[in-house]
Amino acid sequence: MGMEARELHVSDELRSKPATGAEAAAKPNRAEGLPASLAALMATACALSVANVYYAQPLLDEMAHDFGLAFGETGVVITICQVGYALGLFLIVPLGDLIDRRRLVVTQTMASAAALAVVGFAPNRVIFLAAILIVGMLAVAVQILVAFAATLAGPSGAGRAVGIVTSGVVVGILMARTIAGALADFGGWRAVYLSSAAGMLLVAGLLARHLPHENKHKSTGYPQLLRSTLTLLLEEPILRERAVFSLLIFAILNVLWAPLVLPLTAPPFNLSHTTVGLFGLVGIAGALGARGAGEWADRGLADCTTGAALALLLAAWLPIFLMSVSLWFLIIGVLMLDFAIQAVHVTNQTLIFNARPEARSRLVAVYMMFYSAGSATGALAATGMFAWNGWAGVCWLGAGLSLIALIFWLTSSRSTLHDSV
Prior knowledge:
The chain is mainly α. The chain has helices at 2-6, 21-26, 36-54, 60-67, 75-91, 101-121, 125-138, 141-153, 158-187, 189-210, 222-235, 237-257, 261-264, 273-277, 279-288, 293-298, 302-321, 327-355, 360-411.
C-alpha cells in the first residue's frame, strides 16, 4: 500500500524552455520563491472560484419562484452544489499530482465559466440543477491552486504562499453573500451567475498567461491515483491529525455563521439582511490577519501557532455570548474566531504539504473532505441547537467544540509535528 503511493512521484520542476514577456516575469525562481503578483492572481482566482459555491444561499427565494420549487425544496440547490464539490475533491483534485497543474486549472476555470453561463440561462430546474452540480465540482480548482502555490514557493516559503493564497478563499466565502445580494437587487439572481461567468473567463485568460508549466512524468494511471489518495490517510500521521483539526475548526466556524442571521434579524436588534451581511467584512479582517501563520510554520512554530490559535478560539465565545449586551462584543468575537480558525487552517495545510511534496494535491483533497464534513455537521448542529436553546445554546456548542479541539491538541502526539517546515 505504501509502495503504491510512493510510486506516484512526479516532478514539480518547471519546464526548461525559455519564456518571454509576462510569462517570464511570472515564472518563479526557486531561490526567490513565489512572486507577489502571481500569488495575488492565484488568491483572486481562489476567491472567485469558491464564491460560486456560496452565491445561491441568499438567492434561494428568487430561484424557487423561477423554477416553481416549494420553500422546503430550496435547500436541494445548496446540497447539490456541495455534493458536486465533494465529488470534485475526490475525482479532480488528485489529478494535480499527475498532470500539469497550469493546464488543469485553466481548463477547470474555462469550464466553470461555461457551467455558470448555463446556470444563468437555465430554462428549467433539471438543467439548472445539473449545471449547479458541475459548478460545485469545478470550484475545487481552489485546492489545486493552493497546492500549486506551495510547490512554486519552494520548501522555505511554502507556508507564506499558502497563507496568501488561502486568504483569497476566505474572502470569496465571506463576500459571496454580499456580492450576490447586491447583484441580485440590480439584475436578478441570474445576473449573479452571468457576471461570475464573465469573471471566471477573464481569470482563465490571466492564469493561462502567467502560470508556469510543469513537467509531470506519469508513472501510474487514474484508478491507481484515486486509490493512493485514500491510502495516504493511513500512511501519514500528520494528515490524520490535521484532518481532525480541519473537521473541528470548520464545524466551529459554521456553528457561528449558520444561525447568526436568526438572532440579529429578530428583536431587540431587528437588523436588515444587508446589515447582517456586513459582519462578513469583520470576518475577512480577522482571517486576513492570520496570513502570517504560514510564515510562523516556515520558521518551525507550527505547534505553538496551533495551540495559541485554539486557545484564542475558545476565548472568542465569551464576547460572542455577550452580544446581547452590545454588538461590539460580537465584532470582537468574530475577529478572534476567524483569526484563530484561519491560523490553524494555514498551519494545517503547510504541514501536510511538506509531509509528502509529490502528493500535495492528493493530501489537500483528503484534508478538504474533512473540512466539508465539519462544515455540514456544524451548520446542522447549530441551527438545531438554536431552535432548542437559543443563542446561549449555540455559544455553549461552539465553546464545547473549541475545548475539544484544544484538548485534542494537548493530547495528540508531538511526534507527528516535526516543526521543520
